[in-house]
């Protein structure tokens, strides 16, 4: 039996706009892989002095990125 895995190329972008002052801590983070067969998880981490706590948005690999966008205000 052969198991085929279909992986499509995806560009992940972590974007934060509209903050004042402009200094924002922003990073796209990759989790550690458990083993070589499991794909890594990614999240977008945003922190700013106006936020009570950092905003962390985990990438949902099941979303169709051309139809679904996540906007946090």
Automatic annotation (TrEMBL):
Q: Which keywords belong to this entry?
A: Immunoglobulin domain
What is the superkingdom listed in this entry's lineage?
Eukaryota
Q: Which SUPFAM superfamilies does the annotation name?
A: Immunoglobulin
PROSITE patterns recorded: IG_MHC (PS00290)
Q: What is this protein called?
A: Uncharacterized protein
Question: Upper taxonomic classification of the species?
Answer: Eukaryota, Metazoa, Chordata, Craniata, Vertebrata
């Amino acid at each position: 039996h052969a198991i085929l895995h279909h992986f499509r190329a995806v560009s992940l972008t972590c974007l934060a706009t509209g903050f004042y002052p402009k200094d924002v801590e922003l990073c796209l983070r990759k989790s550690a892989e458990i083993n070589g067969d499991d794909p890594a998880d990614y999240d977008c981490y945003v922190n700013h002095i106006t936020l009570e706590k950092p905003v962390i948005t985990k990438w949902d690999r099941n979303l169709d990125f051309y139809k679904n966008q996540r906007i946090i205000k």
